[in-house]
Amino acid sequence: MTSRPHQEATDAAAPDETASIVRLYAVTDGRTRPRHILSLHTVLGPGRRTPRGLPEESARIVELCSQRRCPLAELAGSLGLPITTVKVLVSDLIDASALRIPAGDALSADGHVQKLMALSAAIKRRHPNAAAKAG
Questions:
Q1: CA nearest 35: which of 101, 79, 108, 90?
Q2: Whose CA is closest to 85, among 25, 14, 40, 18?
Q3: Nearest 5 degrees, angle CA 124-CA 128-CA 132?
Q4: DSSP for 76-130, written as a single string
Q5: How far apart are CA 62 and CA 99, in angstroms?
Q6: What is the pTM of this model?
Q7: How many angstroms separate the Cα of 40 from the Cα of each of 44, 45, 92?
Q8: Residues of 47-71 as b/e, b for ≥16 C-beta within 10 angstroms?
Q9: pLDDT per residue of the chain (135 residues) written in tens, 0 to 9
């Protein structure tokens, strides 16, 4: 007769893991892509206002960034959340003016590329049928 303690432990942990995945899906509304272009090195600071009624994960992100500026990768590590989930939540918080990308940090080489990519994306959204013409 063989006992299977490992199998029982795996079965007991499965509902918690499933609940966590479902929660993250609900918090991000099923989105897997942020509206803003964010790299792992993007540094975030507090915004102008803090919306009320934020989900627990978003409130924690705002709290961490209010204490000191935090890179996106550090936020994901501190919260124990997947980086994609944190990018979606941070993007929402930037839209709500709860977070911002401080101007001084955006002047790095990554910051220039990030700004150009964001500008390009905004122009493409505003003028989807426009085509670039070379000189």
A1: 90
A2: 25
A3: 70
A4: HHHHT--HHHHHHHHHHHHHTTSEE--GGGGGSHHHHHHHHHHHHHHHHHH-TT-
A5: 7
A6: 0.63
A7: 11, 15, 16
A8: beebeeebeebbbbbbebbeeebbe
A9: 454 554 544 444 466 666 666 777 777 777 878 888 888 889 999 998 888 888 889 999 999 999 999 999 999 999 998 899 999 999 999 999 999 988 765 445 556 677 777 778 778 888 888 776 655
Residues 60, 83: Cα–Cα separation, whole Å: 15
Token code pair at residue 61: 């992100």
